[in-house]
């Protein structure tokens, strides 16, 4: 709930004379917008609880009449979980399992009714381009379900299980014994039918008579832009079936991993790229092409760039999740030293001349450069070391 309680009609955005259909439609729209497992709004969970409470009151004619007459005092003694415990999200929103698990998350206890099935977890690797733009991703979820061949009966198609003759279909075996003047009855699972109460003469070959088989289901999920690596996205009602009839299935949790990319290493919302430059380009300065998620750009390599220098290109990383702007692209410069065995005679002579001509000497005069000496001509670009920029900027 929000710190300041708002009028229920204001929460749903409907007039006080709205009919049941208008209230339901408003709740459907807002519930989809603020569902905490789908929304990117920072206060989605609190808003969802607020609109569910408002709908729990306004959708009930008796509660609505009391609220219209007395305001919040009409529901002062009713806990919020009781106000929306009876909401069938799947029926209202036309999607089975839409509200599954939210009751336990918000109120710390199981929702009244049959127990839920267990949750399952699966992983998916998503490429950087999808992380950058966001969008739909289709994943395959494997979980047990009713065998399609026998419709869950466990018997060969065309046959049906028969009641167990040993227990009469009860699945139990009762043994009695007299201890003094007291008759003690011991109830155990029937060993002939393993407590099922039925016997299958011709088991289904698709499931081995269990009635269950692994099912694969394709589910489309939304990947928000800039989603952090290893984030778990909850997919309602795609987990294990309930152990009892009528119970809700569990949820599936999709662990989203960033797929390896040969161009980049992801670190949060920043990207890192290794760039190899030749010795002359590192000494004299140059430009180089580097990839980005938006296409190739050229950056300036400042004169005197040392091995291990990191150049930063702002705004070329991933979008900040639930924030504004983008991270940076960091270019790690590696200076390529050629293999001396592959040098041509001319190249070797040039390197020998460089070795004989120490840095800081005048190649025209042969001596050290005098104080204040300055070569005439066009000066190269000057940028602070460690800061990259696109060429021509």
Structural topology:
Layout: H1 8-12, H2 20-34, H3 44-58, H4 61-70, H5 80-84, H6 89-93, H7 102-107, E1 120-126, H8 128-133, E2 135-146, E3 162-163, E4 172-179, E5 182-189, E6 198-199, E7 212-223, E8 231-235, E9 252-258, E10 265-267, E11 270-278, H9 279-284, E12 286-290, E13 297-301, E14 310-313, E15 329-336, H10 345-356
Parallel strand pairs: 1-9, 11-15
Antiparallel strand pairs: 2-7, 3-6, 4-5, 8-9, 10-11, 12-13, 14-15
Overview of the molecule:
The chain is an alpha+beta fold. It has helices at residues 8-12, 20-34, 44-58, 61-70, 80-84, 89-93, 102-107, 128-133, 279-284, 345-356; strands at 120-126, 135-146, 162-163, 172-179, 182-189, 198-199, 212-223, 231-235, 252-258, 265-267, 270-278, 286-290, 297-301, 310-313, 329-336. It folds into three domains: 8-107, DnaJ domain (Helix Hairpins, Orthogonal Bundle); 120-161 and 200-258, Urease metallochaperone UreE, N-terminal domain (HSP40/DNAj peptide-binding domain); 261-393, HSP40/DNAj peptide-binding domain (Sandwich), CATH 2.60.260.20. The chain is built from ten helices and 15 strands. The strands form six sheets. A four-stranded mixed beta sheet has the order 10-11-15-14. It has a three-stranded mixed beta sheet with strand order 1-9-8. It is flat, with a radius of gyration of 35 Å. It starts with 7 loop residues before the first helix and ends in a 37-residue tail after the last helix.
């Amino acid at each position: 709930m929000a710190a300041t309680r708002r009028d229920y009609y204001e929460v749903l955005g409907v007039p006080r004379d709205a009919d049941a259909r208008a209230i339901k439609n408003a709740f459907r729209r807002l519930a989809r917008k603020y569902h905490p497992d789908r929304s990117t709004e920072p206060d989605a969970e609190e808003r969802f609880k607020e609109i569910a409470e408002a709908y729990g009151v306004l959708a009930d004619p008796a509660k609505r009449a009391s609220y219209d007459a007395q305001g919040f005092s009409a529901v002062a003694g009713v806990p919020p979980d009781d106000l929306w415990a009876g909401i069938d999200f799947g029926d209202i929103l036309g999607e089975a399992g839409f509200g599954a698990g939210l009751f336990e998350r918000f109120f710390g206890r199981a929702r009244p009714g049959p127990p839920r099935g267990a949750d399952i977890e699966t992983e998916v690797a998503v490429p950087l381009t999808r992380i950058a733009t966001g969008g739909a991703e289709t994943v395959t979820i494997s979980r047990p379900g009713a065998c399609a061949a026998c419709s869950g009966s466990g018997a060969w198609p065309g046959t049906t299980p028969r009641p167990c003759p040993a227990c009469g279909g009860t699945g139990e075996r009762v043994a009695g014994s007299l201890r003094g003047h007291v008759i003690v009855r011991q109830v155990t699972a029937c060993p002939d039918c393993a407590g099922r109460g039925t016997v299958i003469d011709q088991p289904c070959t698709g499931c081995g008579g269990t009635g269950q088989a692994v099912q694969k289901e394709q589910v489309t999920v939304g990947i928000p832009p800039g989603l952090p690596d290893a984030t778990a996205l909850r997919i309602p009602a795609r987990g294990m079936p309930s152990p009892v009839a009528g119970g809700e299935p569990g949820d599936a949790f999709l662990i989203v991993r960033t797929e390896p990319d040969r161009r980049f290493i992801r670190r949060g919302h920043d990207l890192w790229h290794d760039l190899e430059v030749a010795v002359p380009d590192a000494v004299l300065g140059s430009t180089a092409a580097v990839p980005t998620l938006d296409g190739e750009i050229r950056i300036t390599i400042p004169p005197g760039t040392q091995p291990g220098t990191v150049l930063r290109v702002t705004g070329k990383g991933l979008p900040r999740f639930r924030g504004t702007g983008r991270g940076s692209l960091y270019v790690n410069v590696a200076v390529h030293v050629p293999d001396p065995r592959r040098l041509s005679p001319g190249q070797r002579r040039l390197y020998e001349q460089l070795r004989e001509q120490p840095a800081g000497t005048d190649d025209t005069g042969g001596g050290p450069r005098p104080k204040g000496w300055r070569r005439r001509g066009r000066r190269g670009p000057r940028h602070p070391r460690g800061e990259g920029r696109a060429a021509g900027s």
